[in-house]
Amino acid sequence: MPMSFFVSRQVKIGDVAALVGTTPRAIRHYHDMGLISEPVRGGDDRRRYGFQDVVRLLWIRKMADAGIALDSIRDAFTAAPPTAGKGEGDGADAEDGIKVTLARLEEALAAQEAELARQRACVQRMRAEGSRLGLLSEMVAGRLGNLPAGSLRQADLDTLLVTERIFGPLGAAVQASRFIALATHPELRDESDRVDAAEEALDDTVAVDDPRVAEVAARRHAFEKNLMAVIDASAIAEEEAALLDTSEPPHPGEAGEAPEPDTTGDGGMSAFEAVTKLPHDLSPARLRCAELAQELAARD
Question: What torsion, rounded to 10 degrees, do the Cα atoms 284, 287, 292, 294 define?
């Protein structure tokens, strides 16, 4: 039986929805968005749909199922004024608009695939290296990957995670030298634990002018000097220097360019601002201890 036998017949919204595989509510939404023009209404004031409406609705369904946003579908169908003798957007120009939309969709899907591949690689690295180490960038994790099992502590990795957020992967990779030295020199780790414990003892019950504050500051200063001496005398310093050589950014002002502010990246916050916003639970005595240790370091 020829199709022309059917094309003049007009059907109600429920019938056309069932034919297309959608719902009357969805079709009404398409009308509200301008995806399809309002059809003629019968004597009962109900919408009546013709053959071209079915074609339009099938296009919409097919494109939506392919992942194209409804706004993009509307733009494709309204890419050109109605062609004489045809429905709105059914001309050659509208067809070109659909092709452009499909091309853009393909590009978007390719970008999504690339992003999914990146995310999968990150998850695989987290599984392989351990969730905490895997949270760090490859630059930082690469410096820590060959350390003995269990030699890194949770606090070490947490500190590096925060440092990377504020100062970037390079800053955290440089700071990793500290934790590499602690992980490979048990005597340093033991002394670090003792100094940490002494600092933690400077709680809110200790006055800022208590003699213990200056004593612990001196211990911290002595430990940091010893730690840096160990790092400088080992291959750790050479690794750090090589990292800085390969990752060194252009010097400010090169090629007539003005230096850009140091920011944390996506937030646009400077590193200094980020540091000032870090929460802490340090007592006034511990803060004073840190100040005294810095003053001692400045005198060296």
Answer: -170
Identify whether the C-beta of residue 208 lies closer than 8 Å to the C-beta of residue 288.
yes
SS3 for 25?
helix
Indicate the burial class of 271 (C-beta count within 10 angstroms; 0-12, 13-18, 19 or more): middle
Contacts of 131 (CB under 8 A, 6+ apart): none
Q: Residue 80: what pLDDT?
A: 47
Distance CA 76, CA 88 (A): 11
Express each pLDDT in 196-212 by its tens digit.
999 999 999 999 999 99
Other residues' Cβ atoms within 10 Å of the Cβ of residue 24:
15
**CA gap 189, 183 in Å, rounded:** 7
Span 226-273, pLDDT tens digits: 999 999 999 999 998 988 888 755 444 444 444 444 445 455 678 777
Q: What is the C-alpha separation between 89 and 75, in angstroms, rounded?
A: 10
Task: Extract the runs of DSSP E, i.e. beta strands, from the chain.
Answer: none
DSSP string computed for 36-69 = S----B-TTS-B-B-HHHHHHHHHHHHHHHTT--
Helix (H), strand (E) at residue 121:
helix 92-129
| Three-class SS state of 149 | coil
| Cβ atoms of residues 292 and 211 within 8 Å | no
d(CA 234, CA 185): 11
Closest CA to 236 of 248, 228, 224, 247: 228
Maximum distance among all Cα pairs of the chain, rounded to whole angstroms: 104
Nearest partner of 152 among 171, 134, 125, judged by Cα:
134
Predicted local confidence at residue 33, as pLDDT: 92
Tokens found for residue 263:
């920011």
